[in-house]
Specification:
Blueprint (H helix, E strand, L loop, with lengths): L2 H21 L9 H18 L2 H13 L5 H4 L2 H18 L1 H5 L4 H6 L1 H12 L3 H51 L7 H52 L4 H9 L10 H14 L1
Helix pairs in contact: 2-9, 2-10, 3-9, 5-10, 5-11, 5-12, 8-10, 9-10
């Protein structure tokens, strides 16, 4: 569970609820079932109309993952650089057979992209061939990741629109009641205003922030994979460990750079523990 995400979401809800309680003695006036049905139901209905069932369900599932820990955002790129540099020493000493022994089941589960790329190196493809294959892999993965994010972002645009629809419904009912029962004006006006309120809340606290967070996480993973791809290409070209170190270090900030003379023993120890 991502504690920061959960706390931020609760804080956003708390700001809205707190302002309501601080502003009125009748907070239940902000609870209206027809408005909830119009905004919430309409937003989810358009999701399933706009996207295939598989993609719509994937978008809903991905929204939940935004509240979970994201390993790529929390892990250090220095450790990834250190792993590839250590692999370079293994290839230098034991050849590709030594690298094959490093592709464990735990690596395939933890980092399937890196394990797949290492398989390509072990197979004997050239650096250029590996780069081409992995670039296609990353492009396809980016396209798959983009669909749920776009769907969530669309929900952020649809919910205020349904809020406006509820406003129109409420105004039509209100205007139709003005010549007859004046007591119906109040409830109709409430529906007219509260639906817009619900639509803005869903868009600005739920859907748009979640789509932004998920897209940012996808960018972090993509950056890490590109860095790993460059390292795997250098492994296939049998570049020296120090060259690989210097080339991949160019991807990261100075304080995250891996240095063989300083970090090699610590990296080997960490790898053995994992």
């Amino acid at each position: 569970m991502s504690l920061a995400s959960v706390l931020a979401f609760l804080a956003g809800i708390g700001v809205v609820v707190g302002s309501i309680f601080a502003s009125t003695n009748h907070p239940m006036a902000f609870v209206d079932l027809p408005s909830i049905i119009i905004v919430g139901g309409g937003t989810f209905v358009t999701l399933f109309i706009s996207y295939e069932l598989k993609d719509a369900l994937s978008a809903l599932k991905v929204m939940l993952t935004a509240f979970r820990r994201h390993a790529d955002s929390e892990s250090s790129l220095k450790d990834e650089i250190g792993r590839i540099v250590r692999w370079a020493y293994i290839v230098q000493k034991n050849g590709l057979q030594g690298l094959e022994n490093e592709i464990t089941d735990s690596l395939r589960e933890e980092n399937p992209f890196l394990a797949y790329g290492a398989d390509l190196v072990v197979t004997g493809y050239t650096g250029a061939e590996i780069k081409q294959i992995l670039e296609h892999t990353l492009e396809a993965q980016s396209e798959r990741d983009k669909r749920p994010t776009d769907a969530i972002k669309k929900m952020g645009g649809d919910s205020p629109a349904f809020g406006m629809l509820g406003t129109l419904i409420g105004l039509i009912i209100m205007l139709g009641s003005m010549a007859g029962d004046p007591s119906a004006i109040g409830p109709s006006m409430a529906v007219a205003l509260i639906t817009t309120f619900y639509g803005i809340i869903l868009a600005r606290i739920v859907f748009i922030p979640l789509s932004t967070k998920i897209a940012a996480r996808n960018d972090v993973t993509m950056f890490k994979n590109i860095m790993q791809m460059e390292g795997l290409v250098l492994l296939a070209e049998r570049k020296s460990p120090r060259y690989i170190q210097d080339k991949i270090n160019s991807f990261v900030d100075t304080d995250e750079q891996f240095l063989i003379d300083r970090d090699m023993n610590a990296s080997a120890h960490t790898s053995q523990e994992n």
